[in-house]
Here is the input.
Amino acid sequence: MSRKKVFILAIVAFAILGTLALGNYHRIEKLLERGEGEDDDRATAAGEMMMLWQSSAYPDPTGIQKKYLDAWTYAQQMKRDAENRKEEYGLNGTATTETYNGSWSSLGFSSTIGGRVLSIAMNSKRDNSIFIGTASGGIWKTYNALGGTPVWQSVTTGFPVLGVSSIIINPSDTNTIYAGTGEIYRIDSTNTTMNPSITGYNTWKTRGTWGVGVLKSTNGGTSWSQVLVKSENSLFGIQRLRFDPTNYNTVYAAATDGLYKTTNAGTTWTQVLAKTLVEDVVIDSKAPGKLLISVGNLDNIDKGIYQSLDTGKTWTKITNGTPASIEGCIKFDYVKNSGDTVYASIGVNENGSPDELYQTTNFGTKWTNLTGSNHCSYQFWYSHCVAVNPTNTNLLTYAGVGLHQYTVSSSSASSIGGSVHSDIHDVKYDSSNTSNIFLACDGGVYRSTNGGNAWTAINSGLTAIQFYSTVGVGSLATGSAVVVGGLQDNGVWVYNGSTSTWSSFPNLATTDGASCFVDPTNNANILASGDARLVYYSSNTAGSSAQVLGYWGEIHDSRTAFVAPMAISKSSHTTFYVGTDELFKTTNSGGAWTGGTGGGANPGTSYIDALHKTAIAIAVSPKSANKLYVSVSPFSQFDGDVDSLYYSPPSDVLRSINGGSTLPMTIINGSVSHPLPNRYVQDFAISPTNDDSVWAVIGGFGSGHVYVSPDSGANWYDKDPGPSSGGLPDVPANAIMLDPNNSQIIYVGTDIGTYVSPDGGTTWQDFNGGGFWDGMMVMDLEPYPGNKILAATHGKGAFVSQLYSVSLPVTVTSFTGTNNGNGYANLQWTTSIESSIRQYNLQRSLDGVNFQQVATVQAKNANYSTYNYNDNISSIQNSSEVYYRLQIVNVDGTIQLTNVVAIAINAQLGMSIAGNPFTDQLTIIFTTLAQQQAEARLFDASGRMLMRQAYALQGGSNTLSLQNLGFLPKGMYVLEFVTPGQRYSRKVVKK
Here is the structure.
C-alpha cells in the first residue's frame, strides 16, 4: 500500500463554518486551548484529543453520539451476517473465501508500557482483583494484582467501549460493577447552545474517544448491559461514578451534561442537575443528602465547586476559599466515614500556580489551600488527581504530570514518582493494606508495596497502547516481520518478528511517536518520526538513528500537522517525502532535502496548497517516485502557545507528477458530477499497475467512506453505499489497503473495526473475526509477511490476520483424502482465488510428524480449481494410518502448509476424530463400505446447533473437514455425524 495518512495539528468546528467566510484564512481568538505546551507530555494529550475529534466530526458533528451507536448496531448485523455465511458454508458444502472474516491475533507488547489508563477499581473483598478503564482500549482486569507479575486480561462487554473514565465495584456485592465510558474534556458552553466563540466547541481538547454511557455487570464482568445512554448533539461521556456510601443501590454519575442519579441500581436514572461538564461528585457518608460536585473545564463559563444540602434539589456555588479563577478541571477525594473532610485537586492554570490542593473540613462550605502543592501544571485540564490514605488521613497521594505525597499536619510535600510514567489519572489505596498503592497513568498501571517509596510497572498482558497513523512493516531475512510504529505519549517502538519482542527506537523513546516506514527493499533502513515533524533515520534496524528533519512543535505549529505525513517511494527507495504545509523531499535517504522555502515559521511561496493548510496524508505511486497524492486540512494551530487557529477551507486533495517541483500542486477534488465530499481524506491506496487509479477513505459521518478515482482525481466515485444498501458502518474511516495478491480485494479500517470488499468495492463484509473484541479503532492497515495483514489500533495494540484471499493456507479451501481400497490413497484439494502459486508438494508421513515429499503438482493459477492425486500405499506395512499435507510454494519462494489429512490403512468401519482439542477446524475420519450421504452437526453445550455440513462419502476411509471454527469461544462442544443408518456423537473441545 502506498502512503499515508496522518491526523493534523488543527481542529474542526462545524459551527465555525457558518460564521466564517470561505476562502481566506482567519485568526479565531481563544478558540483553541493549547495542548502542546512545555514538553512532550502536554503535546501528546492535546494532540490526540484534536486529531480524533477532527477526523470524526468535520464538517458536521451534530448528533454524533447517536450516529456512532447506530453505526455499531449496523456493524453487529454485519458480523452476524458473516457468521451466517459460515453456517451456509457448512450446509451446502461449498468452499469459498467469502466464508472468512479474519482471525486476528495480537502482537503483544513490552511489559514496561501498557498504554494510557484512566481509572482503577479495586475489589474490597479480594485485594488481588482489580479492574481498569483505559483511554481507548476498553476495560481490563487482573486477579493477581499483588502477585509477583500480575497479568491483565481484556474484558469483553459487547459494546463499542473505548474510553473508560470511571469504574466502581459494589463493596457489598463485588460481582456488581459499573463502568462510565467516554474520555471527554470539552463540549459546548451550555446544554442547548453550541457557542464556538466562547468555548471552541471543536478544539483539539474537545474529546479523546467515544463513550456509550454507563455499563453494568452483575456477574463480575462476564457480561454487561447498558444502563444509561443518551443521544446528544454533543458527545456524551461519564467523568466519574460514585456509590452513595450508605446505600449501594444509589449511584451518581458525573456526566458531560450534568449529574445523574439512580436509586434502583441503574434501572432508571434521573438528571439531578443540568450543567456542562460535571467532573466529579462526593456524597456525605454521614448525611447522604449532602452533595459536592465540580463543574467545568477549559473555557466553560460556569466552572467551580457546587454544594447541595437537599439531595440535589438546590445548589450553591462555593467561592469561600476557592481560587478566583480556574482554567482546568477539579477532582475530589474524601476521608471515608468522616463526612466532613474533602480534598480537591484543582487545575488552576497551565503556568503552574503554587497551590493546587485544597481542603474543606465542613463538607465544602469553606476551603483552604494546602501550601506548596503545585502538581497539575500544563495538564490542568487533563490528568491530575488526589487520594487520601484510608488509615492515615493526614497523608495524601496526589499527581498530575508527576507523583507526590503531602502531609497535611506539617504542610509538607515530597516527590515520590521516581520512574513512574508522567500524566497520572487515578490513584487507589488497597484498603486492607495501605502500603499497597496503585496508579493509572499514560504509561499503564504502577504498583507500590511500601507506601509509595518505590514503584513498579505492572503491565504484563496489557496492550492498551495507542498507535498513531502509519506503521512500517518489513521482512527479516528469516521471513518473519519487523514492525515500527509510533505510540501516543510512549515514543516509537520496533517489533522483531523472529524473537516476538518490542524495543524502543533510539532517540524517539520519550516523544509522541508518529509516522514510520520501513524500506521495502531493505528492512534495516527505517524512517521514524515523533510529533510535529521530528524525523529520524536508521540504517541498521534501529540499532542507532540520526535526526534528518528538525522538530517544529511550539515554534512552527501553524505549519505542520501534529503527526506529519511521510512516504517512501517503492520505485526509488532512497526517495522520501514529508509533508507540512510545504513538501520536503530527499533522494538520498535524508542526507539532503529540497523544499521548505518558507523557512519554518516564516511565510514562503512553495506551499502544497496554501499557507497553514497542513498535509495529513501522502501516497507515492508504486511506479514513479515523482507522482504523489496529498490531502490537506483547512485548520492549523497558531505558533508559540497562542490559543488561536487558522481556518482556510476546504479540505483539499492534490496531485503532483513532478515530485513537488511545481507548487502549489494541482487540486483534484473531482468534478461537479463526481466530487469528493468535504471531509478529511485520511488515507490513500494506489493501484500497483495503474497509478491513475487511486482510492481514498474519508472521515466524518453522513457520506460514503470509500472513494475511487480512475483518472488521477478528475472524478471520484463513491464505493460505499452506506448502511441502508449494504455498505460500511457510518463512522470515520482511517485506513485503506489493497490486497497484495489481488487488488480487487480492499480492506478498510474504521473507528469500530476492519471491513473487506472482495469485489472492488461492490459489496462489503465484516472482517473482525478472531481476536478483535468490542470496538476497535483501526488507524492503519499494512501487508504483513506470510500473506497476512497488520492492523494498528488506537488503544488495543497491533494485530495480524491472514488475508481474505488466503483464508485457509494460501488459497486452498479444502484438502481431503480417502483410502479407495485398492492400494491407493486419493488426495483431493480445491482452491478459490489462486494466483502466484508455483507448485504443490504433496508430503506423506507415517507418524504425523516427519514428512517426506511424494509428488509435485504444478499449480493452475486459476480460480476455483480442483486437484487429484492417487498415492500408492500398498507397500506400507506396520502402520494403521498414513498422513498427508500440502506444501504450497509461491512464485516468490515463500512456503505455506495446509492442514494434515489422516487416512486409515487397515480401515475399521465407523468414525474417529483427529485434532481434538481443535482450533479452527475438526478432521473427521469416516470409513464405510459403500458410497452414501452424511452430515456433520456441531452443537454448543446447551444443545444449540451452530453448524451443519453435508458430505458425499466414498467407499473406504474418508477424511473430512469441518472448517472455519476459529470464531467459536473456547469450551466444550458436541459433534454429531449422521449417515442414513447410524448416528455418531463425540465431545470435542475448542482450545
